[in-house]
Amino acid sequence: MKHLKKKIFLIILSFFIITNLIAGEKEPGFFPIPPDVLNDIKGNLDRIRQEKPSKNILLYLSIAEEGGYAWYYDSYKKDIKDKDHKKTYKKCVKNSKKYRVGEDCYLFAVNEKIVWDFVKAEMIKKKQVVKNRIIPFIDQEKELTYLNPKDKKPKRSII
Length: 159
Known about the structure:
14% strand; elongated; alpha+beta; 159 residues; 4-stranded antiparallel beta sheet
């Protein structure tokens, strides 16, 4: 009986973990987008809006850290509903897997409104720059301090 409870608990726990790792429909993206990719997507969105001015547009985007991307859009005559988001999202994921970009897509635009979270993307980009920055030895020594002030002695290096 105890083993059965443990198995059920593990199944439920893994379900929650998996569902939180996968983006869902209607979830705006927040990853940094290279400028050339952003311009390409915006250009395609403008072209689609000109071709279908009376329709509602949904555009989902999948972007890889290496810069690869895939996207998918769909247009609808009536107001966009949850099922429309689900349909477009699934097609984007299929497209993304086909081009080996990633496993997930995020909402980029609804009609002409871009919903991608560029503020969060900029914060992620800054964190990546700081993480990848190489600090010179002299600066490292200035930034580090001894836990015990008595340990700071002439000709002793913390590094």
